[in-house]
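Hi all, a correction to my earlier message: I attached the wrong file for Helix-turn-helix transcriptional regulator. Here's the right sequence:
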Amino acid sequence: MLDTVRRNAETADIIERIYDTLTGGGTLRQCLDLVRGATGAMEVTLEIETRGASVRHRCLSSNAAGGSDNMAMGTDTRGALLAATSARITAECGAAHEDHYRLHLTPSHDGAPFPASLQDLAQDLLRHIRRAHRLAAQIDRSEQERSVYSSTLDRLAVGAIFLDAQGKVIHATRVAQELIDSRDGLQLMRGGLAAADAADNRLLQTAIRGKLNQAAGLPRQQPQTLVVSRPSGARELGLIVHSLRCAPEAPGGFATVVMIRDPDRSGEPERAILRNLFAMTAAEAEVACSLTSGLSLDETAQSLNISRNTARTHLRSIFSKSGISRQTELMRLMLSSAAVLGMTPLAGQEE
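and the right structure:
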């Protein structure tokens, strides 16, 4: 009885470590090392057959001499490797239309056979390796999406602050964090978001509480809109408070998001993209960006250290290439084009 309890505890521990490894950024190879240590196998080999538009094989191994990975082994080479001994244990999982996983355990050189119970253990471990591997891929995709969305908001000069079910700040985008750090209108107080002005803060807290109640399952209402004054005298921040569906049994999840727009910030078109979109020269792209930021033609000429006539010549060329005739149309066109999204970095490529 005690041996059974101990074995169950050891199995539960190795399974937990498999999930921790893969969802924590570890590798399948590390999981195979764990399986080899837990089973006493001389070698552990994992085959993954990805079934999509084409079938792709991946083979990884862990052994006392150091494992090896082979992303695209030929059928003959793989077959020779996996047929090296007849004493191994093999486990498989995966439906016909899904990726197929196969785990091989090779016994030690002394030829001692594996205990019969190891077949069930191998099958159980493989099932969890597959599940943890797919979960890690899903987490990675979600993180890539989050990174793209967050960097896109930054390019658009929109801040976002995410709160949990208790109203604590869990995450803030770069623009939002800069506004918080400036303490000019918004600040953190006891882990939550607060407005610097007392009257504004009462309205903000009321809006947040209302959205938290909606996130907990109460009837949903329209997003709450409010403005927050700034001690510096700069123009007021515009806030929109949204509720997000939050499972009460999922601690740390996002329950509310506060979107922030600073009227003194605006998305700036990416010059290289402007040149590609509208066939602008480098100088024309500089003028277009300067005018889009709100500067007059004279101010643009001064900031770029060119004459007013040169700036006007560039502006006429921009009008001709973009099919517009007024400066107000230029601003609208630039801010609604793909250029404002800029070189939005993908996950893992942020500077």
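Sorry for the mix-up. The radius of gyration is 29 Å.
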